[in-house]
Design a protein that fits this description.
Strand order of the largest sheet: 2-1-3-6-14-15
Distance between the termini: 34 Å
Helix content: 25-40%
Number of helices: 6
Structural class: alpha/beta
Strand content: 25-35%
Order of helices and strands: HEHEHEEEHEEHEEEEHEEEE
Radius of gyration: 17 Å
CATH class of the largest domain: Alpha Beta
CATH architecture of the largest domain: 3-Layer(aba) Sandwich
Number of strands: 15
Shape: globular
Bound molecules: ribulose-5-phosphate
Mean pLDDT: 97
Number of domains: 2
Length: about 230
């Protein structure tokens, strides 16, 4: 059922793509539907270029026949479509459940418009139920971990900060970093928290996406609802 809803949201987002657009291609199971549907349109003659937000998406997009470019060749994009782990009414997001947050944020920030596609389970009254991913360089991991823990405690985290693993080994991102997941439970002040995390030298990026998303296409049992950011 959930895959059907994800595909419906992706189908609405793919309608936004116009000929000649430069498109950021998100990562995850929902974005995967978007890339598939965009591939269909490309094979039908649509002229676009894409910038993938992960190696997994790059492999999928190549298989779909979507022409790809890089942000070095094409530093400004028209539209990025990506999934999210959580979003609130102001369209503040938590991303990085799939480990691609760094490239996802760089690509979203380079885009005139970022649209999130999701099923209704991703909409929350307040961020923080989903553990907040924080990408850290490998050098000095233990020191960065302590620093992130201090910030997590200061901001009222209800759970631990854990090193993400893949099997027995620490998870390694496409850019060669590790991820710490903070089990906040609830995040009272996302903006201030985002600023605090960015002050830790070993933190490359965190999964709070604030002021980047302009609309969410939310698939519900009653159809796809377009959520615009509430003032606040
Ligand atoms: C990857 C992400 C994904 O967009 C997020 O995890 C949502 O994934 P899915 O659509 O599979 O629920 O941030 O880093």
């Amino acid at each position: 059922m959930s895959e059907i809803l994800k595909r419906e949201a992706a189908a609405r987002a793919v309608e936004l793509v116009q000929p000649g657009m430069r498109v950021g291609l998100g990562t995850g199971s929902t974005a995967r539907h978007f890339v598939e549907l965009l591939g269909e349109r490309v094979r039908g003659g649509l002229d676009v270029v894409g910038v993938p937000t992960s190696e997994a998406t790059r492999v999928q997009a190549e298989a779909e026949g979507i022409p790809l470019t890089t942000l070095d060749e094409t530093p400004q994009l028209d539209l990025t479509v990506d999934g999210a782990d959580e979003f609130d009414d102001r369209l503040r997001l938590i991303k990085g459940g799939g480990g691609a947050l760094l490239r996802e944020k760089i690509v979203a920030a380079a885009s005139t418009r970022m649209v999130v596609i999701a099923d209704a389970s991703k909409r929350v009254a307040g961020l923080g139920r989903f553990p907040l991913p924080v990408e850290v360089v490998r050098f000095g991991l233990a020191a960065s971990w302590v620093a992130v823990e201090k910030i997590a405690n200061r901001f009222g985290s209800q759970g631990p900060v854990t090193l993400r693993r893949k099997g027995d080994e620490p998870f390694v991102t496409d850019s060669g970093h590790h991820i710490l997941d903070i089990a906040f439970g609830a995040i009272a002040e996302p903006e201030t928290l985002a600023e605090a995390l960015s002050t830790v030298p070993g933190v490359v990026e965190h999964g709070l996406f604030i002021g980047l998303c302009s609309a969410a296409f939310l698939a519900t049992d009653e159809g796809v609802v377009v959520v615009e950011p509430a003032a606040g």
